[in-house]
Amino acid sequence: MNPVSSPRAAADRVRVIAALVVLVALMSAACGSSGSGDDTSAPATGAGRGGSVRLLTHDSFSVSDAVLAGFEQRTGIKVEVVRGGDAVEVVNQAILAKRNPQGDVLFGIDNNLLTRAFDEGLFEPYESPALAGVDPSYVLDPQHRVTPIDVGDVCVNYDRSRLRADGLPVPDTLEDLADPRYRGMLVVENPATSSPGLAFLLGTRARFGEGWLDYWRALKDNGVTVADGWEQAYYSDFSGGSGEGDRPLVVSYASSPAAEVPDPSISVEDAPTGFVPATCYRQIEFAGILAGAANPDAARQLIDFLLSVPFQEDVPMRMFVYPVNTEAALPETFTKFAALATDPLELPPAEVAANRDRWIEEWTKLFSE
Amino acid sequence: MILRRLGRLLLVGVPLAFLAIFFAYPVVAIVLRGLRPAGQWDLGVVGEVLGEPALRRVVWFTAWQAAVSTLLTVVVAMPAAWCFARLEFRGKRLLWAGLIVPFVLPTVVVGAAFLGLVGPRSPLGVDLRGTVWAILLAHVFFNYAVVVRTVGGLWMHLDPHLEEAARVLGAGWWQSFRRVTWPLLRPAVAAAASIVFLFTFTSFGVVLILGGPRYRTLEVEIYTQTARLLNLDTAAVLALVQLVAVVAVLFVYARYQERRSVSQLLRPATETARPLAGWRDRALLGANLAVIAVLLVAPLAVLVGRSLSTPGGWGLDAYRALDTSRRGSVLFVAPLEAVRNSLLFAGAATLIALVVGTMAAFAIAGRDPARTARWIDTLLMIPLGTSAVTVGFGFLIALDRPPLDLRDSLVLLPIAHALVAVPFVIRLLVPTLRSIDPRLREAAAVLGARPARVWREVDLPLVGRALLAAAGFAFAVSLGEFGATVFLARSQWPTLPIAIYRFLGQPGPLNFAQAAALSTILMGLTVAVMLAIERVRVGRIGEF
To answer: Across the interface, do B501 and A99 touch by the CB < 8 Å criterion?
Structure first.
């Protein structure tokens, strides 16, 4: 308990203080460089004539640097990509913050979420000239408050070698999944916490109408596993491809098999996983300009860019979905190992909006028993 | 005199202001948005939600699993706390630092590791998927370090002679523990238990991943109602239910703490630990190391294994690919950049938490009227028991206008992390501060030291260890990104957990291996930081 500090202790103290000073300096440098804490609505400087545009999107959004840089050079607009959680969470955050939007463009809202966003007045209309090259069946909003960008299907994937080893055929239909032969083989995502989970639920509703809950009861009796999200279902429960689990059937995407192909030269029959077309529920992803956007002009240019061929051709390998622009060429793995369902399950957005919460609640009740 | 009063006011004022601006204001804003949708009170929903039998089940499950998890964690961790406090053994420092690793890993990764261990392909042959056991086990895994480090940290400084004296006087091992050591340890045990209880009461990721749709906590329910369904009214009621429960628990705790604190002379840790002697020590240490091996090391080893497995056997492919895969995509995060961001945020969060928490701890342990101290203590613990999604969405709508437009600001992250870390600082400091024998301070004062000097020469060296432990926890809390699930501010400055999520979000043979590889890097980083913190010596703390 000697009150006099030793020289070593003093040196130590100096070191600690120095470390703290460095840390504070780093922090202030970090804050300064990102311009945080300043008024974010001020126009960005030094970004050329176009200013800057902020894209709010979900955590699976991806684009090649080169493609994005091409847009930035051509227009002089700087694009800032801001990611939230998944599509549902990002849209809900945007609805909450609509008084004071956090960005100019929102990408990733899908057909199931449209009605709610329209009711909240989240978007302002913009009809892009680039829509000329888009299949009109994807344009769900005649007022053009949102613009279709990509399309994908949520479908049951299967583990080819496991089914072969068990001497089972690949299931053909949703009904097959409730067949005792596939007992304890299917894993789905919880529709209350996962977007693909909700899409699959809506698919069962589209297929069975009022009888959808009976179908789920049959699935439950047949030993279906429920995972909280796609990551867990695919990586921990599914046995196929990169999965480490023991279930040969999983709710994933029509394009997932393309990602599991080790080498595109193999034959389609040798791909580790495949998908079941009759189980597919269609998801179209849209982008829209947020009402009250700080830079609506740049936002319009960004929408045009999202529909342009360079971005549309970048979409498959970056986000594992299909372009809506008919002029965009598909990569080989996509044409060979994946496909869009020809006759996907679909529900009108208004019906989804009116009943979604109730259906999720009914489903949860069934699975809490 | 005036200066002293001003100082005391600052001690209380700064932490409370911090809490008011960054916690109370956003939370009140989001709750009001739910209960006053159009500027009109709409309380019909309260009756609706409370009358729901399903909700009662959720509340009941939340409470009992938290109680059982806490009890289990304390029971499993106490013997280990003794080993760390009383025995010298090889690798002790490394293990002490490594204990905290589970704390920093993103739940989704740990969930996957756990499922590898007690899931469909369990090497142990037990499939606990979707059972309560999986949840309880994971809670013990996550919180083991809290008890070992909090209790062990105080135990190290208890004078072993007290117990030895009791033994000499004829008391058995159990009796001397119960009569002598236990009363001295009780504050630290209660402090650790209260933190574990709050953590498990608001458990989110673990329950979501391991519990399936059957087991839901209030936290999961609040997240579903807020972030997924945007039913802000229901969410507000649930948040209030959670708040009431948490405050009740904290209040009981605070009253208990006051009645139980004992002042004592603390001893340097180096004096109290001894080398292994006899088969009993070896057996005890062996048993505890076995528990650590099964409970902590095994799931982490599963992760490391997954990071080294490639389609063609074992190899470092995943690590090599970290720097190249997806290069040229805006999703790509260079691992080094993620490490830098993580360290930066965690450092800033630790700094904020230490400053605010230390001030609060002194205010609480000081000579304020007990009731005031109890209130401050309870208030500052509340963030630990509040759902992250409530706070996050609160930030979104409350901090959206200058001068407080912080939604995209970098400072928001460390602040959010500090909110969760401050309670740790308080919990670790207060028991130590209360146990400082006031005669030491009096003696110093009599010898003419001013209050500031008394603090520097008496209090600081004694609480130094606790301060370092608190810094460790604060750092770990931030590294693991607790519950900052809904901030958009993260995306320009991706941290390691964010980078891990990005790998997990896409199919492909290498993606999971790469997520595991990044998790392994995060573990290594954590151990390195913890070891570094242990080595810091503030004044003469090293000896104490």
So the answer is: no
Over residues B227-249, the pLDDT tens digits come to: 888 899 999 999 999 999 999 88
pTM for this entry: 0.85
How close does chain A come to B196, measured CA to CA in Å? 24
Interface check A237 vs B, CB under 8 A:
yes
pLDDT in the model for residue A217: 97
* Residues on chain A touching B537 (C-beta within 8 angstroms): 9, 12
pLDDT of residue B487: 52
Q: Which residues of A touch B119 (CB under 8 A)?
A: 236-237, 245
For the record, the structure tokens of A359 come out as 């259906």
Asked if A275 is an interface residue toward chain B (Cβ–Cβ < 8 A), one would say no
Cβ <8 Å between B393 and A56: no
Residue with tokens 């050329």: A48
CB B40 within 8 A of CB B155: no
Give the DSSP H or E segment for A149: strand A147-159
CA distance A189 to B209: 11
Contact: B505, A231; criterion CB under 8 Å: yes
CB-based burial label for A169 (10 Å; 0-12, 13-18, 19+): exposed
Whole-number Å distance between alpha carbons of A224 and B339: 39
Peptide bond into A43 cis (omega under 30): no
Q: Render pLDDT for A206-217 as a digit per residue (tens, 0 to 9).
A: 999 999 999 999
Record: contact A63-B328, CB cut-off 8 A: no
Question: Coil, strand, or helix at residue A85?
Answer: coil
How far is the C-alpha of A167 from the C-alpha of A159, rounded, in Å? 12
Selected residues 51-90 of chain A with any CB under 8 Å from a CB in chain B: 56, 59-66, 68, 80-85, 88-89
Rounded to the nearest angstrom, the minimum Cα separation between B437 and chain A is 14
> For residue B173, how many other CB atoms are within 10 A of its CB?
11
Would you say residue A41 has pLDDT above 50? Answer: no
Query: Looking at CA atoms only, how far is residue B322 from chain A in angstroms?
Result: 16
CA dihedral B513, B517, B519, B522 (to 10 degrees): -170
Stretches in chain B below the pLDDT threshold 50: 485-486, 538-544
DSSP B27: H
Q: What angle do CA A322, B500, A195 make, to 5 degrees?
A: 45
Exposure class string for B273-299: b at 16+ Cβ within 10 A, else e = beeeeeeebeebbeebbebbeebbebb
Is residue A103 predicted with pLDDT exceeding 80? yes
The per-residue pLDDT for range A274-333, each reduced to its tens digit, is 999 999 999 999 999 999 999 999 999 999 999 999 999 999 988 889 999 999 999 988
Instruction: Compare all CA atoms of chain B with the CA of A226 and give the residue at the minimum distance.
Output: B212
Helix extents (H) in B20-159: 25-35, 44-50, 53-86, 92-98, 101-104, 107-118, 132-155
Identify the pLDDT of residue A141: 94
pLDDT of residue A35: 35
